[in-house]
Design goal:
Elements lengths: L2 H22 L5 H5 L3 H11 L1 H19 L7 H21 L5 H28 L6 H10 L2 H20 L11
Helix pairs in contact: 1-3, 1-4, 3-4, 3-5, 3-8, 4-5, 5-6, 6-7, 6-8
């Protein structure tokens, strides 16, 4: 994929990272539960690589906060770090995981990024953003229980979207037909 296409993917996904949360936040509390900003960040990493995923993860929350006030300023730094890790790791794993099956590659990369992002996010909360007042219970509740519907949403929609983009010829095929 050309560098121009990677930038376009990152820009479109960053824009989706602004629009999708606006839709979900129409229902109070739905953003924390459904994690709508995670979806375009993961797609960017899986489709366009680690640099684009990282850029989307950095840009989407900052631009969304500036444009809509969501995420709120106190949450913005930790959410930006978390999303940057999701985008970076999904892109890194996508570049290196090759099982011979597109969907399997994507799910391994997606789940790996989801786990690493949550681990890093929890570590940053414990060490920097909420140092001294963050517990394992808070991490489990915040990163897994509250966001369980969002985790399910990511597992249900991200891989089919990436597969559809590839089948439509909008992104290069991982396993070109011989």
């Amino acid at each position: 994929m050309s560098q121009v296409k990677r930038v376009v993917v990152a820009a479109v996904c960053a824009a989706l990272g602004i629009v999708l949360p606006m839709l979900f936040h129409a229902v109070p509390g739905a953003g924390n539960v459904w994690l709508p900003m995670h979806v375009p960040v993961m797609i960017s990493g899986l489709v366009a690589g680690p640099a684009s995923g990282l850029a989307t993860g950095l840009l989407a929350p900052v631009l969304s906060s500036l444009a809509t006030g969501m995420p709120a300023a106190p949450i913005l730094p930790s959410m930006t770090c978390e999303l940057a890790v999701y985008g970076l790791v999904s892109g890194l794993l996508s570049a290196h995981v090759r099982t011979g099956a597109l969907a399997r590659d994507l799910y391994v990369s997606l789940v790996g990024a989801m786990l690493v992002g949550r681990l890093v996010g929890g570590a940053l909360q414990a060490l920097i953003f909420s140092a001294g007042s963050y517990s394992l219970a808070a991490w489990g509740a915040g990163y897994f229980l509250t966001g369980l519907p969002g985790i399910a949403l990511q597992l249900v929609v991200v891989v089919p979207i990436v597969v559809a983009l590839e089948r439509a010829g909008l992104v290069p095929a991982r396993y070109p037909a011989r």
